[in-house]
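--- STAGE predict ---
source: upstream dedup step, 1 unique chain passed
mode: sequence only
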Amino acid sequence: MTPTITAFERSPDGGKGLARDTRVRWALEEVGQPYAVRGVSFDALKEPKHLALNPFGSIPTYEEGDLVLFESGAIVLHIAERHDSLLPKDANARGRAIAWIFGALNSVEPWILELQNAKLLESDKPWAQDRMLLVADRLRGRLQKLSAYLGDKEWLDGAFSAGDLIMVSVLLRTRPSGILNEYANLAAYVSRGEARPGYQRAFAAQLAFNQGKR
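--- STAGE serialize ---
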């Protein structure tokens, strides 16, 4: 059965790969699973039909027969568990890959989002500059730890996994701030992720969707 995912009809980033449906597209492309995409407007996010799929009124959602999922990490994990190429067969390595999915979403992404929100929602406040400097330093603290762990390894734990897919997707969101370039090994790590054919196909599909080429 071909799954259907939801995406913004017009993504705030203009189709540059930062919207969370790109993570799901990438996972599906990595495992070679065809999929359909249904566009959702910002107004439609608040409607009962969409809230029945995602109670928080966001994207993406994933529909496959009677199964409906929300939260990009949960969707990517589901895809990875249904196929062989995104999670190791060894039980311990598999557990570590899953831990990195949670690590990316819970220990790295919130700091990135805090910086983005400070810039978007609080830039007109008299204390905005001081807050952005503080938040940026907190983010650097997280990236420093991640950089030290990664070292000169190609991927976080052996072969590329769903953990790397989510981590690269999360780190891409730091690029507009320029902070990623302060950590050469993390910047190279993200570039390796972007160079994967699965990511290239996902990025092109998301860009085309936003340009109306569906």
